[in-house]
Design brief:
This protein is of the alpha/beta class. The chain contains four helices and seven strands; from the N terminus they run E-H-E-H-E-E-H-E-E-E-H. The protein is 22% helix and 29% strand.
């Protein structure tokens, strides 16, 4: 699925939000600057969260409670040497909100069994354009996200 700019990407994420349920996990995979946090901003808006959404690179996890569902925004970029298993992420993944994880390659043993993996690809010829591909893993994700791109 192609997006011509950041606004289109955020609008798509905002439209996706009503389909989400407590315990849904979205894993966002892509290079730096590929649009993962921008996507999360749109998702938050669609969940009714009005707080400013910023990358949790240094805090690792940011919680936003003031929406239809809580949003748990996780950025594992700084954990490339491991340690995700010590964060208790399963409590978020199995909890009352939606979990969005940037840099899921660093999850290791904390990888959930059921999730939607979203690959973000920057267009090498147009810095504003993004292509997203979707890979549902597990029965819950396969059922919930069967109609996405």
């Amino acid at each position: 699925m192609d997006f011509r700019n950041e606004s289109a990407l955020q609008a798509f994420a905002e439209q996706l939000a009503p389909a989400l349920h407590a315990g849904d996990v979205l894993l966002l995979d892509g290079d730096l600057g590929a649009g993962k946090t921008s996507f999360t901003k749109g998702l938050a808006k669609g969940l009714g969260i009005t707080d400013y959404i910023k990358s949790p690179t240094f805090t690792i996890i940011r919680e936003y409670q003031a929406g239809r569902l809580p949003l748990y925004h996780v950025d594992l970029y700084r954990l490339e040497d491991g340690g995700a298993g010590d964060l208790g992420l399963e409590e978020y993944f199995e909890g009352d909100g939606v979990s969005v994880v940037e840099w899921p390659d660093f999850l290791g043993e904390a990888m959930p069994e059921d999730y939607l993996l979203i690959h973000f690809l920057k267009d090498p010829d147009d810095d504003n354009r993004r292509t997203l591909t979707f890979e549902p893993v597990g029965p819950r994700a396969a059922e919930r996200f069967a109609t996405i791109g």
